[in-house]
Write a structure and sequence with these properties.
Helices cover 19% and strands 51% of the residues. It contains three helices and 14 strands.
C-alpha cells in the first residue's frame, strides 16, 4: 500500500523477481492513493522465471491536481499479467502510463489497462510497446473510460508492437468509452516487423545482419527504457534486454 499526502512526492520501484526451476505462481496487488497536488513515480519490474505464473494488479486513486507516472517492464514468467486500474477522481489530475513487454519462447505477456476519468480537466497518456519473438504472445487490452461530467478530458492511448517471428502473436484491443462532452480522446495500435529497408541500409554500411537487427530492436524498445530516470534501474533493464537481444541475434531469423 502506498499513500501520498497532499503536495508530497515519491519514487517507488517494485520488483517481481523469482528463482528456481520448479513450477510456481504469485499474485501481487498494490493499492495507491495520491493526495492533492502530489506526485508519484512508480516503476514495476516483472522478471519471474519462465515456468511460473505471475498476476499483478495495481489500483490507483488520484486527488485533484495529482500526477501518477507509471513505468512497467513485463519481461518474465510463462504467463505474466500486469493490470492497472487508475481512477482520476479529482479535477486536473494527470496519469502517464508507459510500458514494455518483451516475449520469447512460449511466453504470454498480458497488459490489462483501464484509466477512468471521473472529474473535469484531467489528462491521461498510455504508451505501451511490445516485442515478441519465437512463439510468444502479447496481449494489450487498454481502456479509457470518460464518466459523465468529466468535461475537459484529454486522453491518448497507443500500443505499438514488433513481431520478430512468424509464430509470434499479438492480441491488441485499444478502446474508448466516452460519456461526457467537450473531450479530446484518441487511441491507436500498430503491428509490424523489422523494416527491411532499414536493415538493408545498415547492412550496406558494413554492419552484420544480427547487429543490424539488434540496433533496430533496441531503437524500438529504448523509447520506453529511456523514460526511466534512475541510472541503476535503467542499467538493470538494459542488461536484461541486452541478454535477450543477444539471444535474438543467435536465433538468426531472416
Amino acid at each position: 500500500m502506498i499513500r501520498l499526502g497532499d503536495r508530497s512526492s515519491a519514487s517507488v520501484v517494485e520488483t517481481r523477481i523469482g528463482g528456481g526451476d520448479g513450477f510456481g505462481g504469485s499474485n501481487t496487488r498494490s493499492t495507491i492513493t495520491i493526495g492533492k497536488e502530489a506526485t508519484l513515480e512508480h516503476i514495476v519490474l516483472q522478471d519471474a522465471p519462465a515456468n511460473q505464473v505471475h498476476l499483478d494488479r495495481i489500483e490507483v486513486s488520484q486527488a485533484a491536481g495529482s500526477t501518477f507516472l507509471a513505468r512497467s517492464f513485463n519481461l518474465g514468467a510463462g504467463y505474466g499479467r500486469l493490470a492497472y486500474q487508475v481512477h482520476l477522481a479529482g479535477e486536473g489530475a494527470t496519469a502517464d502510463l508507459a510500458g514494455l513487454y518483451f516475449g520469447f519462447g512460449n511466453q504470454t505477456l498480458d497488459q490489462q489497462i483501464t484509466v477512468v476519468h471521473g472529474a473535469e480537466n484531467c489528462t491521461s497518456r498510455q504508451s505501451f510497446r511490445g516485442v515478441l519473438d519465437d512463439a510468444s504472445t502479447g496481449v494489450f487490452n487498454g481502456g479509457i473510460d470518460v464518466n459523465p461530467g468529466a468535461d475537459g478530458t484529454d486522453a491518448e492511448q497507443s500500443n505499438d508492437n514488433l513481431l520478430l517471428s512468424d509464430r509470434a502473436e499479438i492480441n491488441t484491443q485499444p478502446r474508448l468509452e466516452i460519456l461526457a462532452d467537450d473531450v479530446a480522446c484518441k487511441h491507436g495500435a500498430t503491428v509490424g516487423q523489422l523494416d527491411e529497408t532499414a536493415l538493408y541500409y545498415l547492412r550496406s554500411r558494413g554492419i552484420p545482419a544480427n547487429e543490424a537487427r539488434r540496433l533496430l530492436i533496441n531503437g524500438f524498445a529504448d523509447q520506453t527504457v529511456d523514460l526511466i530516470r534512475f541510472d541503476a534501474v535503467r542499467a538493470w533493464v538494459t542488461t536484461r534486454l541486452g541478454h535477450d537481444l543477444g539471444q535474438v541475434g543467435e536465433l538468426g531469423h531472416a
